[in-house]
């Protein structure tokens, strides 16, 4: 039967050590120093936006405040359907459906 050392490929045996009280205090002091440095660094951080990004933000807010569909056109189509004057162009509808299917397949 193979020994553990043979299975490990003759690697050095693993050893464990215990932290003494002094090592724990040193680690705590280092952790405090790192936290203090992070606190100081975060106060110095600043962000500035370019003119273009501010303009994009304004456009985004403007578009969000506007309705996402033309309610006048919807009312017009509803009226045309109600009075029977709305006509569907079957060829155009079929072409659009095929284009949509092709776009889905290409994705």
Molecular structure report:
It is a single chain. The protein is mainly alpha-helical and 107 residues long. Helix content is 68%, strand content 0%. The longest helix has 24 residues, at 21-44. The radius of gyration is 35 Å and the shape is elongated. 0% of the residues are buried. Residues 8-30, 39-51 have a biased composition (Polar residues). Residues 45-98 form the Anti-sigma-28 factor FlgM C-terminal domain. This is Negative regulator of flagellin synthesis.
Q: How many β-strand runs?
A: 0
What is the helix tally? 5
- State Rg: 35 Å
The poorly predicted ranges are none
Region (Disordered): 1-52
Biased composition (Polar residues): 8-30, 39-51
InterPro entries: Anti-sigma-28_factor_FlgM_sf, FlgM, FlgM_C
Organism: Salinivibrio costicola (Vibrio costicola)
Brief account:
The chain has 107 residues and is an all-alpha fold. The chain is 68% helix and 0% strand. The chain has five helices and no strands.
Write the layout of secondary structure elements.
Layout: H1 4-7, H2 21-44, H3 51-65, H4 71-83, H5 90-106
């Amino acid at each position: 039967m193979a020994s553990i050392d043979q299975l490990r490929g003759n690697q050095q045996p693993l050893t464990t050590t215990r932290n003494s009280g002094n090592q724990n205090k040193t680690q705590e002091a280092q952790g405090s120093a790192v936290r203090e440095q992070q606190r100081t660094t975060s106060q110095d951080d600043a962000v500035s936006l370019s003119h273009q990004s501010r303009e994009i933000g304004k456009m985004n807010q403007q578009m969000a405040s506007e309705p996402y569909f033309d309610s006048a056109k919807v009312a017009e189509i509803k009226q045309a359907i109600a009075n029977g004057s709305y006509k569907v162009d079957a060829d155009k509808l079929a072409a659009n459906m095929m284009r949509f299917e092709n776009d889905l397949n290409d994705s």
